[in-house]
Amino acid sequence: MATVDDVRRQFRNPPPEARPMMRWWWFGPSVDRDEIDRELNAMAAAGLGGAEVAFVYPMAPVTAPFGSLEFLELVGHASRTAQTLGLRFDVTLGSGWSYGGPHVGTEYAARQLHWDRREIGAAAYDVPIVAAWPGDEFVAAYVGDGSAGAPSSYVEVPVREGVIQVPAGGQPREVLIATSRVTGQNVKRAAVGAEGHTLDHYSAAAAQEHIRAVAEPLLKAAMPVGSVFCDSLEVYGGDWTPAMLSEFAGRRGYDLRSRLYELLVETEGSRQLRIDFGRTLSELYEDNFLKVFQSWAAGHGVPFRIQSYGEPPATMSSFRFADISEGEGWAWRGIPETRWASSAANIYGQPVVSAEVWTWVHSPSFRATPLDLQGEAHEHFLSGVNHLIGHGWPYSPSDGPGLGWIFYAAGALDDRNPWWPTATALFGSLQRLSWVLRQGTPVRPVKIYIPASDAYAAVRDGYREPNNLYRVVRQLIPESVPQTIRDAGLDFDLIDDDAITVVDPGDVPVIVVPSGTTLPPDTRRWLDAVRAAGGTVVTDVSTLAQSLPPAPLTPVPDVGVVHRRLDDADLYFVANTSPEARTLTFPAPMERWSPLTGETRSTRSTTLHPYESAILVPAAGTDTVPSTELVCAVDGDWSVAFGNEVRPVTLPHRWEDDPARTTYSGSATYRTQVELPATSDRLLIDLGPGTPVAPDSEPYVPGNSYRALITPPVGVAADVYLNDVHCGALWAPPYQLDLTEAARPGTNDLRIVVHNTAANALSADQHLLDAAAESAAHYGRRFDLQHVEHATDYLDSGLLAVPQILRQA
């Protein structure tokens, strides 16, 4: 906890641990020391806080195969260089995802329960047990009376000396044979030397083997590190482990083998069995993967950070066995993975919750603008995140042809972007917000109950990823529930059957339980305690809005609010998530803190421009909103210079309208002279608000690819100089800068250096396509570049508006 004065004092220059980091992809690996040093220095210069190194598929001939001595020496060199620069260095405990590799034989590989379903006649059958694939293990066989799909009950069939002995019967029957089969899934996007099976996340022996073969050598080479990392769980179809039968009996108190067929066949008790089976999978994942890696990392004094969702069916409370909970996904009015992580972090007392941010930002690579990055970051903050791990920074040789190397599906967020000169201001603002959102404690008056039992039971109901508990739960909770809460200006945590043991029912004003939810007895008793303490249990979501407490700030459409409580006051993060301006009004003065400048002022109302955010705290002062008037439009004689080529130009000026500039990525300098008055007021340059665009204006962009829905007045960022004094950068609404310190009465030289994206150059980069093809030819097809054919769709580069000069009292 802290006071307002404490937080205000540090807001302008917060500590470095709140700086955004970047996932740093090493392709191949094909890296060298000089380029490692150059890129780490570039990260530090941009205001980033560190790198999370990740090892993925090759883009060129491999120089240091994964796990080799050369590879480990380069990891150590990178870590030491980061330390000298004051950067945090995190390491992913494997290549690609999920954990696995050549050390994972069939005894440690992810497994799936495979069913062979046959209709037979009345005669007896002897069926030899044959391993169709390496690692196949027979589990059990069952026979039921009736034609295919008709039997209501089955009995286990005896097995002797490797033969399933189906006895004779008096009618057509159905035989079910259960086999434990290696899923066959290999590590996705693996580096050379890291190919192999994905490991069994339910087996402690498999986890220990991965630690021995991969994690221990990596950590030893990389120390000191900020954390060791595990990406999201994508062990598709993995629902079995060799010890399942004994583990189930020990944990659930009854025999699974005799009823195993009920996972496939509907019976009177099959629903509860599927719930118990799913719960057992979750517990095995926690005990034999999460706890094993957390304990090992703790033995080295290193935090274990994980995106604990997906397959295996991690629960929200599984995060309690991590040191740092991490999510991804940016829908603040919904339930993205970030909310899964931030709820656990809040409930289990983890002060920092991170997010993989910009995963698919404005696809394809190099199309993302600083405004896109800001807008998506705000969505993560609104979902409870307070540390950003950018996705990401592709290692790329500086002397390579074309643009170099990029990750197959993500933003390429490094110093190859022409707009990079503005990155320092962007990352500085995000650092301020990350830090302030760690102060005090979150105020989330609403809880949403996770219907885990129903998700476990739904394994047969046609869900695309039935073992992905998070995704099934998200479909079971109506979308209107989080929307109603957030639109009311309030916030929420998810809560599950494990979390109720640490949450006082007296601290739950409102909890939403989706209609028809299956509730374990302990949860029913806890909900009764919530009611007894005066809380409201909402089971009819149509009445949710009437059951919510009043919001501390008057709700405004598209404006998200995060409420945190300090020692002596309430603090609010507010963010406009729309392309239109929104105004908030307050019954008493509020102090507004700017994340871009660190400046503070008192106000009774405040306008948030498109994709703009602010920090608000109660103020003792009076309203200090200044009045503003137009001085002039800067519509005189302009010139533009691309390098040494200088020519007159009329504004607005869009580069793509010139056929010679359609593939140009870089900077251009606009220059003119402007007459300014003698005044004691502030003088501002204003480029205008930008123009909203329709959500479907770029139909190829997938729904999970964030983009700011605005055509800006400058494409896409600009540095502004008045009389050769740098006045700042423009890349986000309100597109205004203070010129006062540089201004003089009379004639002034105005220079605006505009930077676009590297997407224009990407569209003409045949080298990148050739590199991908050559990699596939030499190492097999490990990736497909996403959407690069759309690199130049809907681009707007240049100075797209006539600047205005404003006088502000």
UniProtKB/TrEMBL annotation:
Source organism: Kribbella aluminosa
Name this polypeptide is given: Alpha-L-rhamnosidase-like protein
Pfam families noted in UniProt: Glyco_hydro_106 (PF17132)
Lineage: Bacteria, Bacillati, Actinomycetota, Actinomycetes, Propionibacteriales
Gene3D superfamilies: 3.40.50.880, Galactose-binding domain-like
InterPro entries: Class_I_gatase-like, Galactose-bd-like_sf, Ulvan_degrading_GH
Domain of life: Bacteria
